[in-house]
Amino acid sequence: KWQEGEVLRRRLHNTIMELKGNIRVFCRVRPLLDSDIGAGPQSLQYPNSGDLMGRALEMSVASTVPGQPPQKHDFAFDRVFAPAVGQAEVFEDISQLVQSALDGYRVCIFAYGQTGSGKTHTMLGSPGDRGMIPRAMDQLFASANAMKEQGWSFEMQASMLEIYNEEYKDLLGKGPPAGKKHQVAHDEDGGTSITFAEALDVSGPEAVATLLRQAMRQRAVGATAMNERSSRSHMVFALRLRGTNANTGIQAHGVLNLIDLAGSERLGKSLACGDRLKETQAINKSLSALGDVIMALANKESHVPYRNSKLTYLLQPCLGGDSKTLMFVNIAPSADAAAESLCSLRFAAKVNACNIGTARSNVK
Ligand code: ADP
Ligand code: MG
């Protein structure tokens, strides 16, 4: 039964989100894998939280100057998940955000990080260790079902796009006819249409799972180096929810976007990782465009550069306004990943710091 307490809890969550600013950053460090052993672990500490969930991360990097002590870098995020934290616990922390899509909010959840840091694991996971997408589907369909008692009925549509080399590719349909391209258009109500791309009605989590498997096969077709492609392309899964309440006539139109971003590694390993976002231009251009959009929104700038990348243009109606954004920054725990980890953490810290100065610092 749909509990009144649950409704109150969700309202409170939405209010708190608005007070804090609608951008969250969660850092997740994956466990050390056999394949990392050669490189050895990177020194990472989780002050005050041991190996559980906290808000702080401390990284010590050996100095390149012999005889000098290691350099310490401190970071603070809305959440820091140490390697021992499993999928179910991570999902618990995003479940209210997921839920708000049923209340008519537009939500984007990104996974950002270098290749091999755990983005796909976090988003999709594996059959035995399911990630955020399948868990979100279970929850949304179960909640929609429970809301029937209050007169709500929902129509859900799923779509799955890949953005590769600044071009859209539909992973559910046949794609555009020869000589044509997918084009994105936004209508006044904030709806998004993509020419020649499928948005399919889905009746439950199993239907979505079937589509996801189909999409993954489609993605693999023709890609000889699957890993290379997945490290250079973004995957955007979108669930559109259209709710109507037969008793009150109230409508709630929400969207949940779950995005597995391209690898954030710099293409030229020799480039130093600078302090300003502009200096990250050597990484996938659309990742810096995403950072620029989020920063412009958080700083309430009058011009938000949505048009600078296919990714930000696609997601325009779901970024800004009263929509909600969460970024996972995924970190590999091995010593050989230290330089990239530091870059990812700095990028995320900048996105996170955007909100400071609003009411955020007063809200626990
Ligand atoms: P990415 O998508 O960022 O390139 P993956 O999600 O493919 O990285 O993760 C790289 C490897 O690490 C995979 O073998 C994955 O199963 C494993 N992995 C990532 N995160 C975790 C985790 N939290 N727990 C266990 N294994 C993980
Ligand atoms: Mg991946």
UniProtKB/TrEMBL annotation:
- Per its UniProt entry, which superkingdom is the organism in? Eukaryota
Chain positions recorded as ATP binding sites: 113-120
Taken from the UniProt entry, a GO cellular component term is:
microtubule
Q: Which residues form the Kinesin motor domain?
A: 22-354
Q: Give the transmembrane ranges.
A: none
For this chain's UniProt record, which GO biological process terms are given?
microtubule-based movement
Q: Which UniProt keywords apply?
A: ATP-binding, Coiled coil, Microtubule, Motor protein, Nucleotide-binding
Alphabetized GO MF terms: ATP binding; microtubule binding; microtubule motor activity
Which family does this protein fall into? Belongs to the TRAFAC class myosin-kinesin ATPase superfamily. Kinesin family. KIN-14 subfamily.
Q: What is this protein called?
A: Kinesin-like protein
| Classification of source organism | Eukaryota, Viridiplantae, Chlorophyta, core chlorophytes, Trebouxiophyceae
